[in-house]
Amino acid sequence: MKENKLIEIYQNDSVKISVRKEWCKACGICIEFCPKDVLAADEQGKPIPININECIKCSLCELRCPDFAITVEGGE
Amino acid sequence: MKTVINNYIREEMFPNIWCPGCGNGIVLGAIIRAIDDLKWDKNKIAMISGIGCSSRITGYVDFCTMNTTHGRALPFATGIKMANPNMKVVVVMGDGDCSAIGGNHFIHAARRNIDLTAIIINNMIYGMTGGQYSPLTPTKKFGTTAPYGNIDQSFDLVKLAKAAGASYVARGTVYHVRQLTSLIKKALNKKGFSVVEIISDCPISYGKMNKMRTVVDMLKWIKDMSVSKKAWEDLSPEEKKEKFVIGEFLDIDRPDYTELYSKVMEEAQKMGVSR
Question: Residue B275 has what pLDDT?
Answer without folding.
Answer: 53
